[in-house]
Model the fold of this input.
Amino acid sequence: MLSMHPQEQYAIRALSLGASGYLTKDTASEELLNAVKKVSEGGKYISHSLAESLAVHLDKDAIRQSHELLSCREFEIMIKLANGKSLHEIGNELCISYKTVSTYRSRIMEKMVLSKNTELTRYCIENKLL
Done:
């Protein structure tokens, strides 16, 4: 997966969902070529810095961040809410009812122990999710 998003927030999620590798668009061309070759041969590829992040993430003593408790759909909706989108806008983008979006919002807030969208936005900014 080649992404504009920083690997610290999205790579682990992408890899756990089946990606064979994760690099950001600012990766050096030589590393990108190595990654494409490795993945095309059926292997997996991650950068050295991502390998270190994964080691920390897999450490049993590491504390999980609140957003890591969310499902993929909840995470997606959280990001849209943090970006200031309304329930109706999110519902239209995802082809679901705004009431369903509201239910997801409630679950997100409960899991993350937050009460306002502003708190959610601050959390996302502080954790570099936006």
Q: What stands out?
A: DSSP finds seven helices and three strands in the chain. Residues 2-58 form a domain with the Rossmann fold fold (CATH 3.40.50.2300).
